[in-house]
Write a structure and sequence with these properties.
Layout: E1 5-9, E2 12-15, H1 16-22, H2 37-59, H3 66-89, H4 96-105, E3 111-112, E4 115-123, H5 126-137, H6 143-150, E5 161-166, H7 172-180, E6 186-192, E7 195-205, E8 208-209, H8 212-243
Antiparallel strand pairs: 1-2, 3-8, 4-5, 4-7, 6-7
Amino acid sequence: MENKVLAVVAGEEVTEQDLNDFMENVPQDQQAYRSNPQFKQQYLEQLIALRMFTKQGEELKLDETEEFKKIMEGARKDILAQLMVSETIKDITVTDEEAKSYFEANKRRFVKGETVRAKHILTETEEKCGEILAAIAGGEKTFEDAAKEFSTCPSGQRGGDLGEFGKGQMVPEFEKAAFDAEIGKIIGPVKTSFGYHLIKVEGKSASSETTYADVSETIKTNLLHQKQNDAYNAKVKELKEKYVQN
């Protein structure tokens, strides 16, 4: 693949590969724009500017100043430290056997609790809640349309949809009513600290155990981080005994 020359600064070529390497530092939320020609041009201009400042600094012999030497020494130490940390943890791995063993020993942590999927309409008064319920029961409005029109909760714009939730995520009065409700039946008014609710449960999921296959990668990642952290701390302790004078 041709490494196209994009510019020449003080006799030195700035290539496509130079630009790609420079753009590796683009913030994560902007990575999607890397292929945009205008975006690339902006970064090319930045790279050219840096090269020009570098050349001017060389001409002024700033690389021979004490300040430059101090900065370079600090960078040298930082880089060495980073390389040493990488060296400390580079061979650490997590096997399937370790991950499976952890899963078996901690199965209760991977149980998915009972959940419901529900919609609701929130009003300030019990009377208003009753009026809305009567309108829905009489066929004047659907639950979703009534939520959009009358609910004081932001979920009203989604037809009152709260999605799926488990126990402990809602206020107790709302939670009990939702988990006790029949699917498809509108219940309420239910009083909570937020006001008065009409609740429509659209589905329920019973408590279930998660399989190892569902969580194996998460377990391996967590165990790897834990083992790397343990190795780092052990190395810090070892180096303290070797280098730090009390």
